[in-house]
């Protein structure tokens, strides 16, 4: 069940500010408030999806591919494509998901060590 009051829903509605990197009618990419790498950007669809599986099951192949194509454009815009990066999506308790709105982490700008 989707929680309409999760923090990313509030960011989408403009109730909480964020540092936007890219936005259109369908998606929002913004800087993580607690970065774990020099570049740490979050990407979210604006539709109500709890996690990766929910996003995949609720959307058409076109919408899904557009989300990941935009992710790739943001990676290029951030200037981290050449040296490499990580794209991660945490899901549920075992995945360590804190915010129950599907999101991807884009991590780069340095060698990214997730054990830190
Ligand atoms: P996850 O553990 O995958 O659910 O990651 C949630 C991420 O959201 C964490 O990296 C947080 O630092 C980040 N976060 C939480 N609140 C905000 C906020 N208001 N603006 C930007 N990032 C946030």
Describe the protein:
The chain is α+β, with helices and mostly antiparallel strands and 116 residues long. Helix content is 30%, strand content 22%. The chain is built from 4 helices and 5 strands, in the order H-E-E-E-H-H-E-H-E. The chain has helices at 7-12, 52-58, 61-78, 92-95; strands spanning 20-23, 27-31, 39-45, 85-88, 104-108. Strand 1 (20-23) and strand 2 form a beta hairpin. The longest helix has 18 residues, at 61-78. The chain is globular. Adenosine monophosphate (AMP) is lined by residues 7, 16, 18, 32-34, 42, 90, 96-99.
Helix content: 25-40%
Tell me the β content.
15-25%
Order of the strands making up the biggest sheet:
1-2-3-5-4
Distance between the termini: 32 Å
By secondary-structure content and strand pairing, the structural class works out as alpha+beta
Main beta sheet: 5 strands, antiparallel
Count of helical segments?
Answer: 4
Bound molecules: adenosine monophosphate
Give the C-alpha Rg: 14 Å
Order of helices and strands: HEEEHHEHE
So what's the overall shape? globular
- Spans of at least 5 consecutive residues with low confidence: none
């Amino acid at each position: 069940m989707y929680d309409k009051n999760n923090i990313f829903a509030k960011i989408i509605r403009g109730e909480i500010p964020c540092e936007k990197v890219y936005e259109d009618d369908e998606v929002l990419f913004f800087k993580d408030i607690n970065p774990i790498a020099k570049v740490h950007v979050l990407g979210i669809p604006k539709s109500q999806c709890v996690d990766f599986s929910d996003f995949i099951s609720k959307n058409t192949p076109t919408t899904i591919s557009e989300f990941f194509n935009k992710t790739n454009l943001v990676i290029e815009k951030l200037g981290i494509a050449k040296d490499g990066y990580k794209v991660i999506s945490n899901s549920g308790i075992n995945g360590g998901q804190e915010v129950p709105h599907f999101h991807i982490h884009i991590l780069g700008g340095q060698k990214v060590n997730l054990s830190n």
